[in-house]
Amino acid sequence: MIKNSYLLLASNSPRRAQILKKFGYTFTVTSHHFDEDSLDPNDFLSPRNYVRFLAKSKAHSIKCSSYNLILSADTIVVFNNIIFNKPTNRDQAFSFLSQLQGSTHQVISAFCLYDRLHCRTTIRSALSNVTFNTLTDSQLYNYIDTYQPFDKAGAYGIQECPSYFIASYTGSIYTIMGLPIYLFNTTIKDSH
């Protein structure tokens, strides 16, 4: 597999950086310049289209020309066809987790690999299902107050959830964490 030292990760997510490091990639981190709040999820045909467009917009917002490959990503939680983005406060985090507990929801992560040298944009996405156990209000508040999950779609990070939170999941845990790494491995290999 090719490990490209000219990879620029346009994301402030520590989880995406950890995943890339774990799989042996060399990269530099920068912030994207796209205003995520400028998009209305309801303007898109599906949640998957929305998250794919977000990933692409983040990659294309980078104007730096010294990197050949720019990687950006986005993750959303979808329950009953409603998108749960990052909660803005404790009450919203509790509302999200209250709705998710005792049921199954989808996590969709999309990434965009923008090859500036060849003006090529590749967007891929993956979906995983996560089933939460039925939880008490105190368990939910304890999680929120301990982990402050305000930077995470759906108000939780699977890697930090207590064992009693999650009943099961299907698909890749890396998709749930924010970067479908196996899909990315194939994509970056095919781009060379």
Please name the defining characteristics of this protein.
alpha/beta, 27% strand, 192 residues, 6 helices, seven-stranded mixed sheet, Maf protein, globular
Verbal overview:
- The structure is a single chain.
- The chain has 192 residues and is of the alpha/beta class.
- It has one domain (7-190): Maf protein (Alpha-Beta Complex).
- Helix content is 31%, strand content 27%.
- The protein is built from six helices and seven strands, in the order E-H-E-H-E-E-H-E-E-H-E-H-H.
- Strand 1 (7-10), helix 1 and strand 2 (27-30) form a beta-alpha-beta unit.
- The protein is globular and about 50 Å long.
- The termini are close together.
List the helices and strands and how they pair.
Blueprint: E1 7-10, H1 14-22, E2 27-30, H2 47-60, E3 69-79, E4 82-84, H3 90-100, E5 104-115, E6 120-132, H4 137-147, E7 166-170, H5 173-177, H6 181-190
Parallel strand pairs: 1-2, 1-3
Antiparallel strand pairs: 3-4, 3-5, 5-6, 6-7
Helix pairs in contact: 3-4
Summarize the structure.
The protein is an alpha/beta fold and 192 residues long. The chain has helices spanning 14-22, 47-60, 90-100, 137-147, 173-177, 181-190, and strands at 7-10, 27-30, 69-79, 82-84, 104-115, 120-132, 166-170.
Q: Would you identify the regions where 5 or more consecutive residues have pLDDT less than 50?
A: none
Number of strands: 7
CATH architectural type: Alpha-Beta Complex
Q: Overall 3D geometry?
A: globular
| Beta-strand content bin | 25-35%
Largest β sheet strand count, sense and barrel closure: 7 strands, mixed
N to C succession of SSEs? EHEHEEHEEHEHH
Compute the gyration radius: what is it? Answer: 17 Å
Mean pLDDT: 92
CATH class: Alpha Beta
What is the domain tally? 1
Which bin fits the share of residues in helices? Answer: 25-40%
Structural category: alpha/beta
- How many H/I helices? 6
Oligomer: single chain
